[in-house]
Amino acid sequence: MSDLKHLRVEWDGDLAVVTVDRQEKLNALNAEVVREIGQVFESLRDDGHVRGVILTGAGEKAFVAGADIGELARMDPLTGVEVSREGQAVFLTIERFPKPVLAAVGGYALGGGCELALACHLRLASDNARFGLPEVGLGILPGYGGTVRLSRLVGLGRAIEITLTGEMITAERAREIGLVSDVVPRAELMAKAKELLRKITKNGPLAVRLALESIYRAVDTSTHEALDHEAALFGLLASTADMKEGMGAFLEKRKAAFKGR
Ligand code: COA
């Protein structure tokens, strides 16, 4: 990960903080940034030291202000499909990431930036954050999963309104409609993001991983299939040392020390 141009990876214990840093363009996603995000998440996925990831944007103004419009303006129908597919694949890597990923949104999360936040498992916003899908105003549609994921989070009616008007909503409105977990002062965003993520990473890592898997499987399948899958994962966890540790710790009135096995 040493040759990254637009991404920074920092550590706080077992949490990785990934920062998109292309401040002169409000962290807009050109093809290189998208590739680097994919590269970083693949590398973190295979790193046993990582328990959770915070994804954020550099500077005070933006999380990510969208896909790079200068680049998009040059696409033709074939490259357009490729651009969309590449972004979708990288964002799917985030959604399927086996450890919790939290988007700390400290400013504009527009277009591809909003879609990037939607691909994360959780979103926390600062009070100056703004969300929106302005693509229709540019004559395109949200092509990094926005037409698929937004309605799952906020319902069809609100997703249609946000997508078709292309207008921004405030952080507070995003909280009201369930797009973000909470809104915090800008200066406290990173501390609060870590606090929220640590509430998750203190739990059994295998349990967290399989709970995420079960939740996302349920989005794509019938109730019966999803319940079968849930039961199988539930049974699988009964084979883990983490289950014995979690229940043993409760019964012995002590804190659990999970090993992820
Ligand atoms: N793609 C490419 N460049 C972008 C960008 C994007 N999505 N968003 C911002 N930038 C660039 C601006 O062109 C400008 O570059 P310049 O200084 O070389 O001219 C720089 O980032 C700063 O942005 P600016 O527009 O001057 O900041 P602002 O505070 O006046 O406005 C926004 C902020 C976010 C409202 C405005 O930049 C904007 O509308 N961006 C596009 C959002 C969008 O449509 N995203 C979806 C794309 S699919």
Strand fraction equals 15-25%
The major sheet is characterized as:
6 strands, mixed
Number of helices: 11
Named CATH topology of the largest domain: 2-enoyl-CoA Hydratase, Chain A, domain 1
- The number of domains is 2
* Mean pLDDT, all residues: 97
- The SSE order reads EEHEEHHEEHEEHHEHEHHHH
Share of helix, binned: 40-55%
Judged by helices, strands and strand pairing, the structural class is alpha/beta
Strand order of the largest sheet: 1-2-3-5-7-10
Low-confidence stretches: none
How many DSSP-defined strands?
10
User: What top-tier CATH class of the largest domain fits best?
Assistant: Alpha Beta
Description:
The chain has 261 residues and is an alpha/beta fold. Helices cover 48% and strands 16% of the residues. It contains eleven helices and ten strands. The chain has helices at residues 31-45, 69-72, 77-95, 112-119, 146-154, 156-165, 171-176, 189-201, 205-220, 223-237, 241-251; strands at residues 7-12, 15-20, 52-57, 62-64, 101-105, 108-110, 122-126, 130-132, 169-170, 182-184. The protein is globular and about 60 Å long. The model has no long low-confidence stretch (mean pLDDT 97). Coenzyme A (COA) is lined by residues 25-26, 28, 65-70, 108, 110-112, 134-135, 138. Coenzyme A binds next to helix 2 and strand 6.
How is this fold's topology laid out?
Blueprint: E1 7-12, E2 15-20, H1 31-45, E3 52-57, E4 62-64, H2 69-72, H3 77-95, E5 101-105, E6 108-110, H4 112-119, E7 122-126, E8 130-132, H5 146-154, H6 156-165, E9 169-170, H7 171-176, E10 182-184, H8 189-201, H9 205-220, H10 223-237, H11 241-251
Parallel strand pairs: 2-3, 3-5, 4-6, 5-7, 6-8, 7-10
Antiparallel strand pairs: 1-2, 8-9
Helix pairs in contact: 1-3, 4-5, 5-6, 9-10
Residues 25-26, 28, 65-70, 108, 110-112, 134-135, 138 line the site of coenzyme A.
